[in-house]
Amino acid sequence: MKVTIVGTGYVGLVTGACFSEVGIDVTCVDIDKQKIDNLNKGIIPIYEPGLDEIVDRNIKKGRLHFTTNLASSLDKCEVLFIAVGTPPDEDGSADLQYVLAVARETAKNMNDYLLVVTKSTVPVGTASKVKNAINEELNKRNAQIPFDVASNPEFLKEGAAVDDFLKPDRIVVGLESERAEELMKRLYKPFTLNGHPVIFMDIASSEMTKYAANSMLATKISFMNDMANLCEIMGADINMVRKGIGSDSRIGNRFIYPGIGYGGSCFPKDVKALIKTADENKYNMRVLKAVEDVNDDQKSVLYNKLFKHFAGNINGKTIALWGLSFKPLTDDMREAPALVIIEKLVKAGCNVIAYDPVAMEEAKRKLGNSIKYASEQYEALKDADALLIVTEWPEFRFPDLIKVKSLLKHPLVFDGRNIYDRKEMIDNGFMYYCIGIRS
């Protein structure tokens, strides 16, 4: 079976690599020649555990190819995935120009039946637009070439994307023909041998499922952060509350950890896009608008605690940050809470020195020389007035507390991810602030 993936970003590259891992012949297409040249050399543009090994292995086995030439990739291709970016417009809606450009370019070059699948996160109705774009180009060619469109949203977690793809909870496919269904069954058969379900549905429902899933997870996060803020006011312990509600099978214990807000490429963008879609259809998504408001405010909570501790006198203070990426096991800083915190600290006149295990280069690209960068976690602490825990990387979980205390100017820690035990920190002489527990 031959498959083409258009787009070699996070979704496209993981999709192409994992399909090739089970023996499928995959060609990944991108207009960025430098990126393609690097990929052909095994140089991966993103940090994702395990991905570089899969890419390297399947390039060597001749199952994974990279090119800038879409036309050549369509020869004997049965399924083409559109996995290009859908960045948010200023009004929050998803920008479909790249998706539709791929559809038109595909129609200009296809010569045999093709199943065109949207893998990008797209609003309801996008598959119809893709279908219309293909038909328009085929009509210009006076070509009567059969094709189908389908929707196959991704549910990949950054930092665990390879495992998520190879061992999925579920595979959602929206389609409108038996021929397309048979192709998708054949394509995903290697991933369903252990009982992982493929859920077939209409295309509109498939497109909506992606947004609904991410919006529900974002809702759980914002709900817990809202509860954490109330717990601090009332003198309750959010960690105890979390355990109490998480044991209820109707609620579950995932995505109910308080913190400093969600970020990344999915949740913020998808929540905004779903709100915009509802607005366009004259429906008010009241819950999701509140979810977004809570999350925006939560990104400032750690800064506010610091500001309050020093009674507003933070000009000239040196602040150490551990963590820059929006979550562990990725270098992704899109919509990261760290960006909001750093912006506020710098504006207030603080000197910021930060460390992250993998996101340092991305931070330098985004922040330039507005802050300083440490080469390792303890270097960031030297003579700092306070330490802020921004990302819960595993290597931050069990630090040498004696060393931390000796390096800091003040034994002051603001834990935005609740990774330390409050009693232990206080017993070791730290002033310790976390989320959802009154200090």
What does this molecule look like?
By secondary structure, this protein is α/β, with parallel strands linked by helices. The chain has 3 domains: 200 residues, NAD(P)-binding Rossmann-like Domain (Rossmann fold, 3-Layer(aba) Sandwich), CATH 3.40.50.720; 87 residues, N-(1-d-carboxylethyl)-l-norvaline Dehydrogenase, domain 2 (Orthogonal Bundle); 135 residues, NAD(P)-binding Rossmann-like Domain (Rossmann fold, 3-Layer(aba) Sandwich). The protein has 17 helices and 14 strands. It is elongated and about 75 Å long. A 6-stranded parallel β-sheet has the order 3-2-1-4-5-6, sandwiched between helices. Strands 11-10-9-12-13-14 form a 6-stranded parallel β-sheet. The longest helix has 32 residues.
Task: Tag the structure with descriptive keywords.
single chain, 439 residues, alpha/beta, Rossmann fold, N-(1-d-carboxylethyl)-l-norvaline Dehydrogenase, domain 2, 6-stranded parallel β-sheet
How would you briefly describe this protein structure?
The chain is an alpha/beta fold and 439 residues long. Helix content is 44%, strand content 13%.
Helix content: 40-55%
- Name the average pLDDT: 95
Order of strands in the sheet with most strands: 3-2-1-4-5-6
Question: Which regions contain 5 or more consecutive residues with pLDDT less than 50?
Answer: none
Profile the largest sheet.
6 strands, parallel
Number of domain units: 3
Radius of gyration: 24 Å
Count up the helices. Answer: 17
Instruction: Based on Cα principal axes, name the global outline.
Output: elongated
**Going by CATH, what is the homologous superfamily of the largest domain?**
NAD(P)-binding Rossmann-like Domain
What CATH calls the topology of the largest domain is Rossmann fold
Tell me the name of the CATH class of the largest domain. Answer: Alpha Beta
Distance between the termini: 60 Å
Number of strands: 14
Structural class based on helices, strands and sheet pairing: alpha/beta
CATH architecture field of the largest domain: 3-Layer(aba) Sandwich
How much of the sequence lies in strands comes to 5-15%
